[in-house]
From TrEMBL:
<feature type="binding site">
    <location>
        <position position="44"/>
    </location>
    <ligand>
        <name>Mg(2+)</name>
    </ligand>
</feature>
<feature type="binding site">
    <location>
        <position position="228"/>
    </location>
    <ligand>
        <name>ADP</name>
    </ligand>
</feature>
<keyword id="KW-0067">ATP-binding</keyword>
<dbReference type="Pfam" id="PF06745">
    <property type="entry name" value="ATPase"/>
</dbReference>
<dbReference type="InterPro" id="IPR010624">
    <property type="entry name" value="KaiC_dom"/>
</dbReference>
<feature type="binding site">
    <location>
        <position position="142"/>
    </location>
    <ligand>
        <name>Mg(2+)</name>
    </ligand>
</feature>
<feature type="binding site">
    <location>
        <position position="42"/>
    </location>
    <ligand>
        <name>ADP</name>
    </ligand>
</feature>
<feature type="domain" description="KaiC">
    <location>
        <begin position="10"/>
        <end position="251"/>
    </location>
</feature>
<feature type="binding site">
    <location>
        <position position="40"/>
    </location>
    <ligand>
        <name>ADP</name>
    </ligand>
</feature>
<feature type="binding site">
    <location>
        <position position="226"/>
    </location>
    <ligand>
        <name>ADP</name>
    </ligand>
</feature>
<dbReference type="GO" id="GO:0005524">
    <property type="term" value="F:ATP binding"/>
</dbReference>
<dbReference type="InterPro" id="IPR003593">
    <property type="entry name" value="AAA+_ATPase"/>
</dbReference>
<dbReference type="InterPro" id="IPR014774">
    <property type="entry name" value="KaiC-like_dom"/>
</dbReference>
<feature type="binding site">
    <location>
        <position position="44"/>
    </location>
    <ligand>
        <name>ADP</name>
    </ligand>
</feature>
<dbReference type="InterPro" id="IPR027417">
    <property type="entry name" value="P-loop_NTPase"/>
</dbReference>
<dbReference type="GO" id="GO:0046872">
    <property type="term" value="F:metal ion binding"/>
</dbReference>
<feature type="binding site">
    <location>
        <position position="43"/>
    </location>
    <ligand>
        <name>ADP</name>
    </ligand>
</feature>
Length: 251
């Protein structure tokens, strides 16, 4: 009888201080993670930090598909953390796909731009080409509700997400998809109720009132191939981006 040798799970570092120790050293390579939370919880910052630090610290190219704000606005906002996205774009380590300008009727000087007329198959093929163009190891799509709004029939989002999941698995990239959590306190983790089922990991970002102040918390709801706590951990968005406090204390 032949005994198969155990193959350890290869991990992809998040680039977020304090977070990786909650998930055995990083995301399982090639996994799809859903990042969900309400408005102002830090989803875009978390996702952008994952892409930027991948290029800066780990030499892993990444693609950021922005469907909620123009690429130029994203760069400006992230520069407040000292992140020079344009530097790594010029080096071919980061690609930002502008999915907003054409929709609102504004001209775009970006290298990667989605067309105004949204077609799911074309969208998926285009993302696939951009990923292959820079040999990306990381991918962010921000956000799923913005994809749904571009569909002629919003109910088709289930079909789109299933197709998207298949393409992502074929590409083998480690992916973060962002979505909105209507009511995470009562188990409503996503707007369409399917996002958390196609993803292999689910991370919830939350704002809670404590001592008449709003505090930020992160909860790892699901992460396959990973042992993780089901506790909420505090985090802050500071001058250098997001920092998670595994000890539960903010210093």
């Amino acid at each position: 009888m032949r005994i198969m040798a155990y193959q350890p799970v290869r991990r992809v570092k998040s680039g977020i201080p304090g977070f990786d120790e909650l998930i055995e050293g990083g995301f399982p390579e090639g996994t799809t993670v859903l990042l969900t939370g309400g408005t102002g919880t830090g989803k875009t910052t978390f996702a952008a930090q994952f892409i930027y630090k991948g290029a800066e610290e780990y030499g892993e190219p990444g693609v950021f598909v922005t469907l909620e704000e123009r690429a130029r606005d994203l760069r400006r906002e992230m520069a407040s953390f000292g992140w020079d996205f344009e530097k790594y774009e010029k080096e071919g380590k980061i690609a930002i796909v502008d999915g907003v300008s054409s929709v609102v009727g504004l001209p775009s000087e970006e290298k990667f731009v989605l067309e105004d007329r949204f077609n799911v198959d074309n969208f998926l093929r285009y993302i696939y080409r951009v990923v292959k163009a820079i040999n990306a190891k990381r991918l962010v799509i921000d956000s799923i509700p913005s994809i749904a709004l571009r569909l002629e029939e919003e109910r088709k989002i289930r079909e789109v997400l299933l197709k998207l999941n298949t393409i992502l698995l074929e590409m083998g990239v480690t992916t973060i998809l962002t979505t909105e959590a209507p009511d995470p306190q009562h188990g409503k983790l996503s707007r369409y109720g399917i996002e958390e089922f196609i993803a292999r990991g689910v991370i919830v970002l939350d704002l809670q009132e404590k001592n008449i102040e709003l505090k930020r918390y992160v909860l790892i709801r699901k992460m396959r191939e990973t042992r993780h706590s089901m506790k909420k951990y505090p985090f802050e968005i500071g001058p250098n981006g997001i920092v998670v406090y595994p000890s539960g204390e903010i210093y």
